[in-house]
Amino acid sequence: MTSSSTKRVSALRSALHVSSDGRRFSLHPEDEHSSSPHQNLRSHPSHKAHAGLDNSRTSTGVIWVTEQAAKHGYNDEPEKWANLGQGAPEVGDDIEGCFPRPTSIPITLKGQEYGPTAGIKPLREAVANLYNDNYRKGKDSQYTWENVCIVPGGRAGLIRIAAILGNSYLGFFIPDYTAYNEMLSLFRNFVAIPTPLSAADGYHIHADKIADELARGTSVILTSNPRNPTGHALAADELSLIQDICRDRATLIFDEFYAGYTYSSDCDGTTMSAASNVMDVDKDDVILVDGLTKRFRLPGWRVAWVIGPKAFIKALASSGSYLDGGTNVPFQEAAVKMLDPPKVKAEMQALQRHFKMKRDYVLKRLNEIGFNQGDQEIPDSTFYIWLDLTTLDPPLPEDSTINISNGLSFFDALLEEKTIVVPGIFFDLNPSKRRNLFDSPCHHFVRISYGPKMDVLQAGLDGIERVVKRARGELGQHGSAVQK
After folding, report:
1. Is the model more confident about 171 or about 27?
2. For residue 353, what pLDDT band results from cuts at 50, 70 and 90?
3. Based on CB atoms within 10 Å of each CB, which residue in 171, 179, 266, 389 is the most buried?
4. CATH T-level assignment (fold) for domain 32-92+349-471
């Protein structure tokens, strides 16, 4: 071994910390065994073996935090809680400028029959027309109804896509949507390879990263854009460059469910989609997934769509016959008139103005509490804040009896304030089975949703403020303004 190698090994060895049982070594001084929130996560059934059941598939981040909140009474009185964990965009409330929330839908005789697994033709036509109007004006190649498959929700769409992929390496980037890893691991016809994004880049995807993926043989790439949980979107020129790099080399799958929540164009109703950069709708291997769930604020309808080359769409229709059976027909029929382009434009303008106002409120409150953005830019999309807990200023006193330096401990403390967030580790690769939880680069983050209405946001931010004050000794260890 060379002297330089010896020095590196020696430096690394001296930096390691040994666990309390002497068996594990880590670069982080924290020990899971001394942290009750971490032991609580380890004790969850999804992290234990059970005959005949793969428990690792029984819990994702949002499910887990909801289960923990239930132990503190959330299910009994959800109206007394501030749920900033679930990504639901103010469902059921009218927003100024948006179309009124539907309270009933007509059911035709045809709507009571089995529907085609690719969706009813009028809705497929309406989706194609919307994309052509928004993203493909003046282009020779236009989407038709045969380029659209209607699916019962975004997850079902992604599962159908995964089911028809051939032997390949599939790359996806973390942190990202918590269910990607669970969904992708169900299938054995391809190998899913996660790639961590860099904190120095603000957890952005960039063209160099995509080029690296292609160089190592990746032929399918899946990503959300705009991104969950970081709240960022690819700039138009970089998105175009990525598609140019991948054309005829890799299939790109874009989860575009947050495409309506963009705030970088003065809330003029502009939305984003990789559809803008497709050269030929039947030759470019670009698959887009979106639906009524987020930007139409109708998650319970379970109406979504996949757009791509006709060959992909035909295969997706066939897979629906053995995976999910297709989408509810009456809701498809009711959705057709919602997709009129001028109506959608007005909806997006109102939506963007409203959610930008809420984003700015949450960021202002977090800054007043003591959290600054650090290396993270202000999120320009979605309705999430990817909060870096290490940016708290001033930092907590060394003798603080409450640890809120990591997402799990912060989440645990917030339960006392009837407030729910999602710890950052759930957007990583299920580290509870692979490594020390403190080793996850996402461990000192939480995802905060500003999807709920303003009074819920205010209550949640009040809860966060009380937890920080309690950790600083300003309210006492158990001080709380919550009415129990």
Report:
1. 171
2. very high
3. 171
4. Aspartate Aminotransferase, domain 1 (3.90.1150)
